[in-house]
């Protein structure tokens, strides 16, 4: 068996793993990172930007959010069910992590929010001329990998870790497997797990599958590991795929431009019973909206507009600019849905199980499969509210009350991901892995989405956007610093 040794062994070279590797190497430690895939970065290559509070970008804009306020927002949102000291440590570190990335050549061009009433903590990565105009996470991963190489970090790709070595109660390394299937023993004074959890369970819009390798290995040596379930994050329009299922015909991504933007506005929503169930403006808050939709029959509802409302949006612009705050991930903001008609025509011609167009309301109800009598009554009551400017059912603001009365009529099926609990390895505020008895496993640390359960309870905290990517970066740095303190103490 081939044998290797370093001060710190890092399992995976994604966002948290690379951040940990560079941090440790900057402080003089020898580092080996073992990556299961054929390339570094993982889903971090597709991120748009990290969370930060009290950054220089926010100060220039005189954006008033403080670290203490952000901490309270996070803890209130999670009902104080998560590790408060860990969350506060992360938030306090976030601005310095942006400075750290800038020193490696990363540029940020603006801050963004996920939607109306949310905070501008998402720091968007600037794409230099000549680079692919997608989300800029790959620039951060490239910069970290380059810095790691300069500092002597060894990143071994196609080298999955199979087992954590534990001697007595102390972790002393890992057993990995090279691309030929030969075992490698990598000894270290500390090990950091950063494999990304089960990304497909709760936060995998990026598309790189994750299998919870770190969770499984930690559990084998006595760590407290939480098995996760699906967590609400987004409400999806159009042909949204079922959680964990194959993409259906004509995916929702076809609706990101004009058509999708219209159906994501606070327009009339009805469930399969043909009834309203909320003030539609509440759907703009994606976690709350997703829960409201998931609570309906079959977890499905329909967004409905008529020809007049569609024309209003085309001519005057959307109530809410498309995308998360000021831009859509991987594209430009949409202010006016000028291509609505062309997109709807293409969708219908290609066949869609979730977009419906009709010349009258009875026909629309039949196509949607809703209770026809209840639906027609709902339309009558809703149109009356629009005429009077007073929504007695849910108190919807008058500015968003637009009647459904002028043919043609359009409907888009929307689904909500039900609430659940994020998976993860239980850690303390020093990122040390804990047993079920809350005792530390000496020498073992964890960072990134391997530890989601420590900062999220049931919903992604999108009031503070960028915090999944930000957590991976910052917790990677934190884990490296804490591991080095542990090594020094021994």
Describe the structure.
The chain is of the alpha+beta class and 490 residues long. It has two domains: 2-230 and 422-489, FAD/NAD(P)-binding domain; 235-416, Flavocytochrome C3, Chain A, domain 1 (Alpha-Beta Complex), CATH 3.90.700. The chain contains 14 helices and 17 strands. The chain has helices at residues 15-26, 56-60, 67-77, 84-103, 137-150, 199-202, 213-220, 258-263, 286-294, 307-316, 340-350, 361-368, 372-388, 467-489, and strands at residues 2-11, 31-34, 108-112, 122-125, 154-156, 161-167, 170-177, 183-193, 225-226, 235-237, 268-271, 300-306, 355-358, 409-416, 424-425, 432-434, 440-446. The strands form four sheets. Strands 1, 2, 5, 6, 7, 8, 16 and 17 form an eight-stranded mixed β-sheet that branches. Strand 16 and strand 17 form a beta hairpin. The longest helix has 23 residues, at 467-489. The two termini are 28 Å apart. 50% of the residues are buried.
Please specify the SSE layout and strand pairing.
Elements: E1 2-11, H1 15-26, E2 31-34, H2 56-60, H3 67-77, H4 84-103, E3 108-112, E4 122-125, H5 137-150, E5 154-156, E6 161-167, E7 170-177, E8 183-193, H6 199-202, H7 213-220, E9 225-226, E10 235-237, H8 258-263, E11 268-271, H9 286-294, E12 300-306, H10 307-316, H11 340-350, E13 355-358, H12 361-368, H13 372-388, E14 409-416, E15 424-425, E16 432-434, E17 440-446, H14 467-489
Parallel strand pairs: 1-2, 1-8, 2-5, 8-17
Antiparallel strand pairs: 3-4, 6-7, 7-8, 9-15, 10-14, 11-12, 12-14, 13-14, 16-17
């Amino acid at each position: 068996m081939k044998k290797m040794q370093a001060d710190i062994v890092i399992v995976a070279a994604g966002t948290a793993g690379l951040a940990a590797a560079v941090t440790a190497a900057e402080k003089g430690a020898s580092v080996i990172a073992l990556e299961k895939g054929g390339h570094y970065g993982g889903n971090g290559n597709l991120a748009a930007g990290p969370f930060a509070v009290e950054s220089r970008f926010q100060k220039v804009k005189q954006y008033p959010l403080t670290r203490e306020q952000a901490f309270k927002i996070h803890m209130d949102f999670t009902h104080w069910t998560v590790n408060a000291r860990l969350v506060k440590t992360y938030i306090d570190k976030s601005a310095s992590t942006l400075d750290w990335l800038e020193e490696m050549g990363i540029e940020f061009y603006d801050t963004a929010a996920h939607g109306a009433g949310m905070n501008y903590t998402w720091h968007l990565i600037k794409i230099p001329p000549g680079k692919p105009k997608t989300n800029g996470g790959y620039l951060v991963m490239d910069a970290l990998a380059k810095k790691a190489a300069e500092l002597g970090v060894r990143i071994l790709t196609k080298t999955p870790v199979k087992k954590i070595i534990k001697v007595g109660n102390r972790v002393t390394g890992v057993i990995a497997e090279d691309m030929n299937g030969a075992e490698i023993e990598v000894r270290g004074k500390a090990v950091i797990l950063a494999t990304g959890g089960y990304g497909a369970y709760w936060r995998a819009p990026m598309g790189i599958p994750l299998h919870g390798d770190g969770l499984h290995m930690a559990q084998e040596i006595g760590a407290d590991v939480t098995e996760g379930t699906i967590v609400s994050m987004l409400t999806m329009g159009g042909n949204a795929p079922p959680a964990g299922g194959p993409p259906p015909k004509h995916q929702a991504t076809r609706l990101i431009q004009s058509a999708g933007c219209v159906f994501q506005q606070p327009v009339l929503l009805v469930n399969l019973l043909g009834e309203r169930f909320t003030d539609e403006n509440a759907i703009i808050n994606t976690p709350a909206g997703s829960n409201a939709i998931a609570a309906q029959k079959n977890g499905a509802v329909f967004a409905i507009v008529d020809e007049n409302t569609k024309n209003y949006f085309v001519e005057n612009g959307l109530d809410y600019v498309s995308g998360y705050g000021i831009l859509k991930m991987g594209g430009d903001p949409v202010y006016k849905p000028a291509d609505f008609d062309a997109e709807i025509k293409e969708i219908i011609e290609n066949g869609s199980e979730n977009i419906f167009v009709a010349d009258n309301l009875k026909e629309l109800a039949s196509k949607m499969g809703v209770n026809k009598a209840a639906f027609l009554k709902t339309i009558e009551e809703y149109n009356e509210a629009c005429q009077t400017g007073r929504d007695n059912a849910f108190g919807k603001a008058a500015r968003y009350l637009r009647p459904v009365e002028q043919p043609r009529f359009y409907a888009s099926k929307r689904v909500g991901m039900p609430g659940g609990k994020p998976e993860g390895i239980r850690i303390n505020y020093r990122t040390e892995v804990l047993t079920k008895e809350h005792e530390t496993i000496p020498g073992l640390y964890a960072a990134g989405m391997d530890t989601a359960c420590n900062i999220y309870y049931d919903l992604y905290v999108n009031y503070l956007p960028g915090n999944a990517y930000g957590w991976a970066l910052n917790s990677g740095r934190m884990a490296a610093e804490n591991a080095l303190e542990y090594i020094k103490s021994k």
